[in-house]
Design brief:
By secondary structure, this protein is of the alpha/beta class. It has one domain: 5'-nuclease (Rossmann fold). Helix content is about 60%, strand content about 15%. α7 links the parallel β4 and β5. α3 packs across α6.
Length: about 140
């Protein structure tokens, strides 16, 4: 069975702007999937026609994985634990929520999540194990 990869928005946005990860993305040997949460993040930040076209093209070219009901509920439980342990303010908790959903979606599908956002995803791994690769 082929390995499954999900690229975080940090990788996609940086590669879109600079081409920094083009070689690494092209060299992935496995199935590249998108997260609906990552697509939502991309759309939220799409300010130009180019950004919108990029988001549309991504969604058309790759299968999209979406958090399950269980993932949504578990994300709230994880965030409650993080808030109790770390005392983060509401803004930080909102920022982490999408990342927790992306991580749980990757875990559910046995996918490796690739990101450049080391700090947040390593924090999440303290609460739930999932495959992570940081570029």
């Amino acid at each position: 069975m082929s390995e499954i990869f999900i690229l975080d928005s940090s990788i996609l946005i940086d590669d879109l702007r600079t081409g920094r990860f083009s070689g690494q993305i092209a060299s992935l040997s496995g199935l590249l999937r998108l997260s609906s949460v990552v697509l939502a993040e991309l759309w939220r930040g799409a300010v130009s026609t180019f950004d919108r076209e990029f988001s549309l093209e991504l969604a058309e070219k790759r299968p999209v994985l979406t958090p399950t009901q269980k993932n949504w509920i578990e994300s709230g439980q994880i965030l409650a634990q993080i808030r109790r342990d770390r005392g983060f303010e509401a803004q930080k908790m909102r920022e982490l929520h999408f990342d927790v959903l992306i991580a749980l979606t990757a875990r559910t599908h046995g996918a490796k999540l690739i990101t450049s956002n080391r700090a947040d995803f390593e924090l999440i791994r303290e609460y739930r194990e999932f495959e992570l690769e940081v570029w």
